Inverse folding.
């Protein structure tokens, strides 16, 4: 039987990927659908993805699949054809494609894991069925609704994501986790049950479930951006539309962010100068995620404080 997990240390894999100089695409996709045997599905995914030299994170559960990966550019068409025929539910699946313009090594290992949920929502209500979802809107419709002065945009990402970039006047549901947001969003937005609401997130997976939760709780006019921020930006560029998202889009890989506009709407924790560069404190026992400008990265040795700097 073939080995269906990585056998090489992450340190060695990281070294290997940095030695290669190949063009790679960054892909993300998800699909909510029932998987009867997630473990078997996971093993098939790992075996086939390995053949395409795919790196990144894939989560599989009874409720579907969620993936953030990179792939050699030359393998993309073959991989897409494979994915579309792998399972009927994945036929014509929307794949968010980003060109790795700066050739930054985003991932250096393939990890495919079975999870209880592909997105942990924390919903305990037994009456809730993830069935009815909000109406998809495209980039053109997003721009119209941003400018109509009536539609409410709700950011369904964590606060540290919102901090470095968001749509103008978007409502932040302050939280550190998606579970917290779903608990709070219904209470915070109670006044808007009859208003038009657009929910968005990075790639669409969180806001899709969030729209279903809002509809379940009596909200009448709920929309979400097809493909999330990534889908919006790609579609706006393709159709030569104005991109109204301000700042940077936080991403969960080695890059930490993608520049969307020239605006820098956040500031360095230490000197308060404009910056949208996230780092983890270099003192491993702290490792807190925070925004730090280039000068402070030098002065504080990538630490969040002089206290942590003492241990480096």
């Amino acid at each position: 039987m073939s080995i269906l997990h990585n056998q090489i240390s992450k340190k060695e894999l990281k070294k290997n990927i940095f030695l290669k100089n190949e063009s790679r695409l960054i892909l993300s996709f998800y699909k909510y659908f029932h998987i009867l045997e997630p473990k078997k599905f996971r093993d098939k995914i790992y075996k086939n993805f390995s053949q395409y030299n795919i790196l990144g994170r894939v989560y599989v559960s009874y409720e579907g699949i969620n993936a953030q990966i990179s792939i050699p550019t030359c393998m993309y068409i073959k991989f897409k054809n494979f994915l579309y025929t792998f399972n009927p539910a994945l036929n014509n699946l929307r794949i968010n494609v980003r060109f790795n313009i700066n050739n930054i090594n985003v991932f250096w290992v393939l990890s495919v894991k079975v999870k209880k949920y592909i997105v942990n929502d924390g919903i305990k209500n037994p009456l809730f069925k993830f069935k009815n979802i909000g109406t998809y809107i495209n980039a053109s419709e997003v721009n119209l609704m941003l400018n109509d002065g009536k539609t409410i945009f709700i950011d369904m990402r964590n606060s540290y994501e919102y901090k470095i970039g968001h749509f103008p006047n978007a409502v932040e549901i302050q939280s550190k986790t998606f579970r917290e947001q779903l608990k709070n969003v219904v209470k915070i937005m109670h006044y808007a049950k009859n208003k038009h609401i657009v929910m968005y997130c990075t790639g669409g997976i969180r806001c899709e479930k969030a729209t279903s939760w809002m509809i379940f709780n009596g909200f009448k006019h709920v929309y979400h951006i097809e493909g999330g921020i990534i889908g919006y930006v790609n579609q706006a560029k393709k159709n030569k539309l104005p991109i109204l998202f301000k700042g940077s889009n936080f991403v969960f890989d080695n890059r930490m962010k993608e520049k969307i506009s020239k605006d820098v709407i956040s500031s360095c924790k230490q000197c308060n100068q404009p910056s949208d560069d996230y780092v983890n404190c270099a003192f491993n026992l702290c490792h807190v995620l925070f925004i730090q400008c280039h000068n402070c990265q030098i002065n504080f040795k990538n630490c969040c404080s002089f206290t942590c700097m003492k241990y480096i």
About this structure: The chain has three domains: 10-114, 135-238, 267-312. The domain at 135-238 is CATH 3.40.250.10 (Oxidized Rhodanese; domain 1). The radius of gyration is 20 Å.
